[in-house]
Design a protein that fits this description.
TATA-Binding Protein, 7-stranded mixed beta sheet, Alpha-D-Glucose-1,6-Bisphosphate, Chain A, domain 3, globular, 447 residues, 5-stranded mixed beta sheet, alpha/beta, 39% helix, 3 domains
Length: 447
Amino acid sequence: MAKIFGTDGVRSKVNAEPMTTETCLKIARSVGHILSKKHEINRVVISKDTRLSGYVFEPVIASGFSSMGSEVLLVGPLPTPALAMLVGTLRADIGIMITASHNTFEYNGLKIFDKDGNKIPQELENQIEEIIFNEDKYNLIIQKNLITGKTKRLEDAVGRYTESIKNSFPKNKSLKGLKIVIDCANGANYKVAPEVLWELGSDVVTIENSPNGKNINLNCGAVNPSKLSQKVISENADIGFAFDGDGDRLIVVDENGEIMDGDKIVALLATEFLKQKKLKNGLVVSTHMSNMAFEKYINKIGLNLIRTQVGDKYVIEKMRETNASIGGEQSGHIIIKDYSKTGDGLLVAVQISNILISSNKKTSEIFDLYEALPQVQTSVEVIDKNKSFYKNKDLQKFIMNFNDQNDNLRLLIRPSGTEPVIRILVEGNNLESLKSISNEVQKMIVG
């Protein structure tokens, strides 16, 4: 095991490194040790999504922290942004979200938040790995006395989160008259999302909200919104929202069943925030995956786009650094800094619903901001993603020459930060040409 942390915390298939009970126990103890050096008493909040293996990792992580003297609060299945919020309101020092986000149930992972509700920095990740990979250091940190912490369950966590979301909606308004279909991905939003949108006045139709531990993200949700598209049309609904398994992503479907990705969502929010003079520094943050047409639109309305490497934590870091108000990824991680420190699908759904009900327009009309350039995105499964990418000299040479020689095309190839795959993006004007380039790259990767 060469590394524990990827681009978004810890993630792998269940019972494979680093998501084994042994390593998760070590992670909890290592974080507990680092905390104990800073605080006499420390508090940890642990949440999870709906996947089956959450029942395995929740008690292991709780026992790891309590063995180091920490007080542990279990809040049960909640969206990731709810945990980030609770860490602050409960005056906790660390929040642990047990989730593999958009992956199916075979995977699980850990997202770790600091006392301010931000994902922990690289420096702390490195400290944790340094302890775990050094047996002598790990043996030294294990608590030798009898003073342990205790674990208890917090019953009102859901209510705290739903109230925070509803408070972001104008008190003198209602979503009455709006028909919304939501796809909960059989994940952490299966209770809170329908409840919040109904309480705000809308007519809610819910699909994929019966989690059984194995159906999270399975052919549904933000990574596969085709069922949502069909349901919006059949229900004659005004709009559809698709969340991912841990609720930090959102994809929108308009009344015609057309899919609006994260670029379109950020563009809409930036436009509205600009009108309301709520956009700080004239900046929007996104990643290298975002469409070039999106960037041109952002520039057209007088704003500047800052791109980061792929991963919502990099977007959030750049937003903090530049004091930008809005940022996001094409995949649907959208961050509205005034309300949340991490991507929050339900929060963004409420904000879009507010824009829609206030506009007296159809969803397709409020999102009619620009025409995206064609993109072809492909994932190639590999055994060793770093070797297949960084040590493939032919591939590296191809990438360098391609971008030097093609002004009207864009090629982005990268190892995934969460899965054993190489991701390929080709962007340009001619779809058939993009497919041909993508096929050529895939052959180079697989050899």
